[in-house]
Amino acid sequence: MYRKKDLQKYAELIVKVGVNLQQNQIMVLHCSTENSEFGNLVMEEAFKAGAKDVVRIYDDERAQRLRYHYATVETLKDIPHWQVDLWVSNAKKGACFVWLESDNPDAFLGLDGKKISEGRKAWLHARKEFNEIIDRGENQWTIIAIPSKGWAKKLFPHETEQNGMRKLWDSIFHCIRIDTPDPVKAWEIHTETIRERCNWLNEIDFRTFHITNASGTDLIVEMAEDNLFCGGADVTVSGVAYQANMPTEEVFSMPHSSRVNGRVISSMPLNYQGVLIDNFTLTFHDGKVVEHSAEKGMDALTALLNIDDGSRRLGEIALVPYTSPIRETGILFFNTLFDENASCHLALGSAYPSNMKGCLSMTMEERKAKGYNDSVSHIDFMFGTADLKIMGITREGKEVPVFSDGNWA
What we know:
Blueprint: H1 4-18, E1 26-32, H2 36-48, E2 53-59, H3 61-70, H4 73-77, H5 81-92, E3 96-101, H6 113-126, H7 128-135, E4 141-145, H8 149-155, H9 161-176, H10 183-204, E5 206-212, E6 218-223, E7 230-231, E8 234-235, E9 241-242, E10 245-246, E11 251-253, E12 255-265, E13 270-272, E14 275-285, E15 288-296, H11 298-305, E16 314-319, H12 325-328, H13 336-339, E17 345-349, H14 364-369, E18 378-382, E19 389-394, E20 399-404, E21 407-408
Parallel strand pairs: 1-2, 1-3, 3-4, 4-10
Antiparallel strand pairs: 5-6, 5-19, 6-12, 7-11, 8-9, 11-16, 12-14, 13-14, 14-15, 16-17, 17-18, 19-20, 20-21
């Protein structure tokens, strides 16, 4: 374990800022067996903050690997009701949710990717009801990272296990602002900065973004009707603020599901279900990916595009300056939570209701008519580069530089 004082500060930040746990509220805490000790710290902070109860859900990548290797596809696709009910029932009770993410990027290296994809697809479809509840905005939730030995080894292969873990802790703490005198205050200031960017984008009300760089990305992204840029703290329908992702450097909104055209080239690898997808290209026509290629991980890329009808369309566009604190660490984390905050990114799959005015009061048909993309998946991939240019076009046809040389213009 890391320094006890810093770990307690981190646990407190997760409870008070991440999910902003309320008095007498249930917390559902998902963590790996490797990090159960830190999970106990979060659990203690939750009870000290007034939690009614803390429900623990454990994950073990080694056990998952064995199951993916030996179980049949039919078994992997058979999701027991009790596994889903555990999430759904607590969501209906108004619980908040914490995911302590510590995935080893090479956890499933060498396994049958198609087999993993079938199991993952079944799980995504099984938890659709849970996702719909969360999308209504009634529950706080946060995804936040904890080092694991496998992850540290991937990032620092020439270090001893102890030094690798320490370096990863240091990097995470820097990105999360734990190394500041008052992390809670630092997050308040950071959230306000992001909010100012959102206000500027929403005031201008861009219709279209034209994205280009020297790598070959040339993409026209038209925005959904009544779209909103969001970022920093989210707010539940009852007015409770929380941070869905920590770290976060993005401002994000909703593309129109059928009005994206052109080509985008990835700028960073995507770790999908333990398989690394690298140097990939997606070509869009009328919102849909019609061609794709990858130098590495082609089967995994094909699988994620075929999860359902919406997984070939965009649900999110996110703007992140190339000079973000995560980028400045000089580390490729092989973890979307961090890497997406080092680069502008897009997401294949479901849109977020918060990115459309009045979305929660609409039927799905009404949402789709305005450009909302519906899917059981939401997979971010990075396209930001040092020479990235984004030109915004207003609804009146005026061109406004948004990004130049990878940063805010």
